Amino acid sequence: MVEHPGLADTERGVEGAVAFSHLLSAEDRRCLMAAGRVRSVAAGEVLCRQHEVDDRAFIIVLGEVEVVEQVGGRRVVLARLGRGELFGEIAALFGLPRVTDVVVTRPAVLLEIDGRALDELIISRSRLRHAIMHRCRHRITATALRSVAPFRDLPPPARERLAAGAAWVTHAPGSDIVREGEPGDALYVVLFGAARVTVPSPEAPVNLALLRPGEYFGEWAVLTGAPRAATVTAVTQVEVLRVEREAFLALADDHPEVRLQVEALARRRHEALVYSGAHPQAARAAHQVLASIEQAVRGQRRHLCGL
Asked: Is this model's pTM higher than 0.85 or not?
């Protein structure tokens, strides 16, 4: 049996940069060690493959890896990561395909954590969630924008400009992200968690949709200048990317294909909203279905948090 060093022994990444593990408390490290499994891997092993769906995240205890992207048939090294660094967390948390290859360049010892365990930890431990989000905000923002259909095929510089004009906002469960009647000053992309879309009715608010990571909202008000047509409320802890109206409209002017896609979804959603007002019974039936889905989502979160 080989005894491996723990996360407490990892202090700095490659070239002296402060490593992810340096942001963690001793308790965070213990929780991660308990949730994962330690692996020894040889140089040359490919841990992540571009475009594959994989729910594992890794922390480097010893050794080094390269982050590699295949661009036009060329192999481009984007980064070299060393002890204490985290990678693979975006795919593990959001269920998105890998955007790069990760290859071991020096024999390594890794802590491997599956997405469900990582999800549990960051929901129940705010310090750990903040460390991960702080460390990976730029990568997650770029990946999230690539996951949104209208932005997927934009040239990288255009997505970078969009990200630069956006802000990362956290909402607690039960809080309103936008309210009906408010000015439409921003479009939102859901990065993490779930949110419900509701409209008022004489009896009680009616659920129209449940939004998950990779979906966006607020487009009707942004495009038309009209007040918000619905309220969006956080069901779980929700992280959203807030894109200011001016930044989005500037992008839409430069890339008409983006405007066309967003306008098409805005029309479909607006038609659904009008239909729900004209057919309250159908709206109530849809409300019951969405309420059941929301209850399941909440139940899953409670289970993950150990409540």
From this structure: no
